[in-house]
Amino acid sequence: MAKSKEIFYSKKFKENYLYLKKSKNFILVKNLKLKKIKMKRTLLDKIWDIHRVRTLPNGKDQIFIGLHLIHEVTSPQAFQMIREEKLKVLFPQNTFATVDHIVPTDDQSRPLKDPLAEEMLTALENNTKETGIKFFDFKSVKQGIVHVIGPELGITQPGMTIACGDSHTSTHGAFGSLAFGIGTTQIKDLLATQTLALSKPKIRKISVKGKLGIGVYAKDVILAIIQKLGVNGGIGFCYEYGGEAIKNFNMEERMTICNMTIEGGARMGYINPDDTTFNYIKEREFAPKGEEFKRAVSWWKAIASEPKAKYDDTVELDGSKIEPMVTWGINPGQTIGISKTLPDIKSLNSNERETAKEAYEHMGLESGKPLKGIPIHVAFIGSCTNSRISDLREAAKIAKGRKVALGVKALVVPGSQQVQKAAENEGLDKIFKEAGFEWREAGCSMCLAMNPDKLKGRELCASSSNRNFKGRQGSATGRTILMSPAMVAAAAIQGSLTDVREFL
Amino acid sequence: MNPTEIKKISFLSGRGIPLKGNDLDTDRIIPARYLKCVTFDKLGEYLFYDVRFNENGSKKEHALNEKKYEGATIMIVNRNFGCGSSREHAPQSLLRYGIKALIGESFAEIFSDNCTALGLPLVTAKKEDIENLMNFVEDDPVCEIKIDLEKLEVTYGDFSILVQQPAQMRKALLEGSWNSTGELLSSLKEIHLVKSKLPYLNKFNF
Prior knowledge:
The structure holds two protein chains of two kinds.
Chain A: E1 5-8, E2 17-22, E3 25-30, H1 34-37, H2 43-51, E4 52-55, E5 61-64, E6 67-70, H3 76-84, E7 95-98, H4 115-131, E8 134-136, H5 146-152, E9 161-164, E10 178-181, H6 184-193, E11 195-198, E12 202-209, H7 218-229, E13 237-242, H8 244-248, H9 251-259, E14 268-271, H10 275-281, H11 290-302, E15 313-318, E16 325-327, E17 335-337, H12 350-363, E18 378-381, H13 389-399, E19 409-412, H14 417-426, H15 428-435, E20 438-439, E21 460-463, E22 479-482, H16 485-494
Parallel strand pairs in A: 6-7, 6-9, 7-8, 9-10, 12-13, 12-15, 13-14, 18-19, 18-21, 19-20, 21-22
Antiparallel strand pairs in A: 1-2, 2-3, 4-5, 5-11, 16-17
Helix pairs in contact in A: 3-6, 7-9, 13-15, 13-16
Chain B: E1 11-19, H1 26-29, H2 49-52, E2 74-77, H3 89-97, E3 101-104, H4 109-118, E4 122-124, H5 127-139, E5 144-148, E6 153-156, E7 159-162, H6 167-175, H7 180-185, H8 188-197
Parallel strand pairs in B: 1-2, 2-3, 3-4
Antiparallel strand pairs in B: 1-5, 5-6, 6-7
């Protein structure tokens, strides 16, 4: 632990000695060079330190937040508090807004048909206008899911602290930033002070070694990680993802990994920035340009974890052994490889059995049977986890020249207006439409059913989203099976859960 | 309220309203469908909505619907009040309905934290003391109940009972440090200093 092992100079022996302080025992270490003994730090340590304003009387750290993202659902009450408490937004230029949760994906003309949705959108317009916060609305042609547009506009950068009233803010950690979700009172704190009272998490390094097989994507890797560590395994931790498989991922794949960090219980997770990161950011609208970009890269390189940094825990996975993953239950930790059969409840840990039983009842599934072949009613490709251009390309490869099975409602919802435009320029929309998929406009859509896209009754949905909680997709009895976008496309074509590898 | 001024809460008084029952959860305090809103303003109207009203909007039998408790500001409850989700909407709906404090046998942990953040005091008392207080208020709803947080004492009529409060909540209320914004804002100079040193907010000149 970094705190119990402090190293410092003694004035008297400054030249030749260092004291190593461990608990209350002092050990005199002779002739050690500072360079060698200096504590190697993680990206978490470095970012935390430069953003720390002070330690508060309650023991928490007051942390400066470099980037605040807001959307229509969790911010209006915070703005109300700001008004009621006669506060002002301290640094409006450090906050960016978009609308995503409540937007319809078929007809985005104003006023929105749902008066409550229209009211929430209007409130965001007024709040951002009054306080001078930049709002990417429909007209901007840059609107989209908050965790899609931050990166694609170059707003999200390495070394930042990033917060948003949304648990999937962990997505932005893909760039080597500390990014996490917050509650409404914290949004108020952030608007008023650009800081938050936080406790520094512990750090766990998760290495995914080896090369992934064909038909295995970032979604399968993160589902395998959550399966291994459990949905509560990350509580109190920040995750650092590394290893060959992670290193080989492009930025969009890295975002999928970091996005679902919260589903494993960790509030934030990151990947050290490298050339893949810098190349992605270069030339984006809000990215530094020219000489400034060069200076940025040298700083971004310097904030990465040092090779011998200390971790509170380390976990390794063999990427070559991961197969396409599917969930079978009511939380994202209840997963199996598509070739496997459903687990026997007795084979599970005792604390998992109750939920497994509830899951089987809700899903109408039985142990010992495979998931492959189970008919689906809805196929959903979208959400902050998997709605970026590379996700759509992979799904389109499967859809091309094939037809959605009869009776299956299949939706493709791009994550942002820019993703939509890029996909249309490449003709992906045509591929999907010809195959029988509905091509929609940008939004959160069927991930959480705060908009018109919802499951009905007991419908079973093959979904590229992030949560398979009961009722999550809008019907209390609806059923969600999480998987990669390519697997969703394959299921839509097959009309049942299937192995995407048979389509490649 | 100016957040830089500390608002100490050490004494409250008002008329009481007894709300009998254990494990009254956050979904009952504020039903989920009322979370689709832009302000917490109307949450007061929806406080305990589904247990107060029928589907057609007619009133059910409930303490909050009784005329004799109109204007009451101190809610008296039983065990494990506020269990369930972490939604801030629950204490917000109580606050906006006009509740200034709650006296109960026990409160759920997250609910208790949320109340602290909003400066809504909770105190706990023994089961029989709560029952006596509830009965007294039923018979004499206009009686003034006084809560002294310094002395940890509740007085009503000729009676007085000893109450408890979690130490952190008590400290926050008595010192007026329950509003974290004020605490954070008090280091404005340091905030500017940290901002001025962050490479990404200063054109990467470092």
